[in-house]
Amino acid sequence: MLELNLTKNTNEAIQGTYGKYYARVEYKDTIGIDKLAKHMHSHNAVWSRGLVVGLLTDLVDCVKELALQGYVVKIDDLGLFKATVEGNGLTLQQGAKISAGRGVQRKDSELQADITLQQFAVKNVKLLVQATGETTIDNMNGEASTQFTSKAKALVLSLTGSESNAPANTGGGSSTGGNTGGSTGGSTGGNSGGGDNNGGGGGGGEDGDAI
Predict the structure, then answer these.
(1) Per the domain annotation, does 62 fall within a domain?
(2) Could you tell me if residue 64 is inside a domain?
(3) Which residue from 150, 140, 137 is spatially nearest to 181, judged by alpha carbons?
(4) What range does the domain containing 66 cover?
(5) ∠197-36-58 over CA atoms, to 5°?
(6) In the chain, what percentage of residues exceed pLDDT 70?
(7) What's the alpha-carbon Rg for the chain, to the nearest Å?
(8) Cβ pair 210, 82 in contact under 8 A
(9) What is the CB-side half-sphere exposure of residue 159 using CA atoms within 13 A?
(10) What's the rounded Cα separation, in Å, for the pair 195 and 204?
(11) Residue 129 and residue 73: Cα distance in Å, rounded?
């Protein structure tokens, strides 16, 4: 069961959304490898907790290693894991010095004064996760159930004069947009449609959730 709070949008720049309330998940805890191993062990008694911890630790290391080598790692029914870059805007003209390495974005004024200043193609390298199989939007919609937190229920009652209704169903329906998360660049915040997408800048982002 996902518990939801309601957050008021105070960003006037987003047309049609200012003053509206959007649902946000109230997360209960962060589950690390040790807690995940304990949970998995409770489902599969034949695996020791120590073995599960070791497997998960190796999995994390290998996914990162392969992603940084340019591979897309697919864990069926969980996600596609791949490295992506947030790019700097490059000024390509005679005399410019361009590197495929990572560095800060050069300002136009700096390059106008000296075009030979080193420019770097990459601002940041990030791990991108894209849902697949059982974790695509349609599957998650079909299996998820939601309810308001007590705080959200009280807010609805105080502002509307009536209690919130219980969900009519646990999801269902088809998502037309595929499974697209936030773009890989930039800072979190200010999206108008709920959820916890990463919005904002960055050069040439890809669909998915950047970690």
Answers:
(1) yes
(2) yes
(3) 137
(4) 31-71
(5) 90
(6) 78
(7) 22
(8) no
(9) 12
(10) 22
(11) 10
Is residue 24 a part of any domain in this protein?
no
- Rounded to whole angstroms, the Cα distance separating 122 from 109 reads 20
Which of 34-38, 87-91, 183-187 has the lowest average pLDDT?
183-187
Q: How many Cα atoms within 13 Å fall on the side-chain side of residue 31?
A: 10
Q: How far apart are CA 12 and CA 19, in angstroms?
A: 8
Strand extents, DSSP E, the chain? 2-8, 21-25, 73-75, 79-87, 97-102, 118-130, 146-148, 209-210
Residue 192 located in a structural domain: no
Structure-token pair, residue 165: 């209704």
Q: Name the domain count of the chain.
A: 1
Six-digit token pair at 138? Answer: 């349609």
Question: In the structure encoding, which two tokens stand for residue 7, read together?
Answer: 């957050």
Q: Within 10 A of 43 (CB to CB), how many other CB atoms are there?
A: 7
| Exposure on the CB side of residue 92, measured as CA atoms within 13 A | 4
Angle CA(60)–CA(63)–CA(69) in degrees, nearest 5?
140
pLDDT at 187 over 60: no
3-state helix, strand, coil in the chain (%, to 5): 25, 25, 50
What would the pLDDT profile of 138-170 be if each residue is shown by its tens digit?
Answer: 999 999 999 999 999 999 999 998 888 877 554
